[in-house]
Amino acid sequence: MLHKPLLSSPKFDLTIKRLCYQLIENHNNFSNTVIIGLQPRGIYLANRIKEELSKILPKAHIDCGDLDITFFRDDFRRRESPLVPNATNINFIIEGKKVILVDDVLFTGRTIRAGMDAMLAYGRPKKVELLVLVDRRYSREIPIEPDYIGIQVDSIASQNVRVSWKETEGTDKIELITEK
Amino acid sequence: MQQLSNRHLLGIKDLTENDIQLILETADNFKEVINRPIKKVPSLRDVTIANIFFENSTRTKLSFELAQKRLSADIINFAASSSSVSKGETLIDTVNNILAMKVDMIVMRHPYAGAGIFLSKHINAQIINAGDGAHEHPTQALLDAFSIRQKYGDVAGKKVVIVGDILHSRVALSNILCLQKLGAEVMVCGPTTLMPRYIKELGVKVEHNLRKALNWCDVANMLRIQLERFEIKYFPSIREYSMMYGLNKQILDSLDKEITIMHPGPINRGVEITSDVADSKQSIILEQVENGVAVRMAVMYLLASQYPLV
Questions:
Q1: Which of A66, A69, A73, A76 to mutate to test the interface with B (most CBs of B within 10 A)?
Q2: Is the Cell cycle keyword given for this protein (chain B) (predicted)?
Q3: How far apart are CA A26 and CA B250, in angstroms?
Q4: Is the complex ipTM more than 0.85?
Q5: Residue B98: pLDDT above 90?
């Protein structure tokens, strides 16, 4: 296994800050916008973004939820390992709101497709945008592109991109992992 | 373990503790799903399920049907009373004809114990037992365990008493097995004539005094007297049974602690339980019904997931 570091502190923090300022440009004080992190790994990014936004906009109230997409995936009964569901916590209304879907890595786009389906169970948003920390470009299987990108990575299918977080792994970093 | 150890759900007897925990944890997720504004998920949209009921049912049938619809499965319903069974068709022939219509899963209720097990040996589809005679009713036991877990946080260490017609009750057997596997203590309470002869071999306490049983327990599960299964008289009169084993507000209020009341339905108000108890704050009877849909969704989801398309 070969671990190639792609991003670590302080650039990691700068990237998150930059994404936050990009969001503020389009969403002002977030009065009509909600953030939804996709389970299982997108929720850490969503929480970090919310935290950072609250520092920049101390007066703003920012709604942030977790969405589990397990039951909406298109590979149920088509994969060897079972799908394990996670909790969904959405305590606000998305009807008529602008929704920012947040995930850590964008690869084939199938997770995001399932995420959009799952999100629609909570209402009809005015607009949906996609924010990802890592865009593994040229590997899409579905026509889905992000609106906000942390970094872009060129990789092949057999490789893996792993995002680690201070909260769970002890350090913030992004690595490209190649099986030998 | 994130997969069930068995490809059918014929009884709690075949499940491991891990299986039961997995079902309950998955049911947590489905409980959240059925409280969303749009309560439907597309998981089972390529699965066809037949509901075959050789015996009457309201709750179980509606609950299974709703669970299947919430999972986007295609369903066909079959009630023995309006079918060719009355023309003399055998069980295997009936089911094989249904399977010829490309059905993946069968939910069956049957008046004979072991009907599901018999069927599972002769046909290819996955089978869920929705009650077989006086044998087992696994999804009821799972939803009862789920309801206790929801109320107390955990089933392990809880004291549960099952009151009433233990002899004819499939709910009692499934509940005993399920609660024991999850680490609860189980007592049965009822007249001697309605106790199965070998009940003690299941490792349960037996008590014939309702007040003593209620003073011991955290949860009381009140069963209906299954008069339709009585071949002889097991007690002098319903009135006498009700006086000895019926749960009323007076007994409930005289206990030194607040216990939780459950009932698998249908209730015979005024016989095993009075209306003021059934509708009291201590009763979680309607929550059991809500949880039933989530638990059945979890069971069908987990069974379907272990049968890959390719």
A1: A76
A2: no
A3: 65
A4: no
A5: no
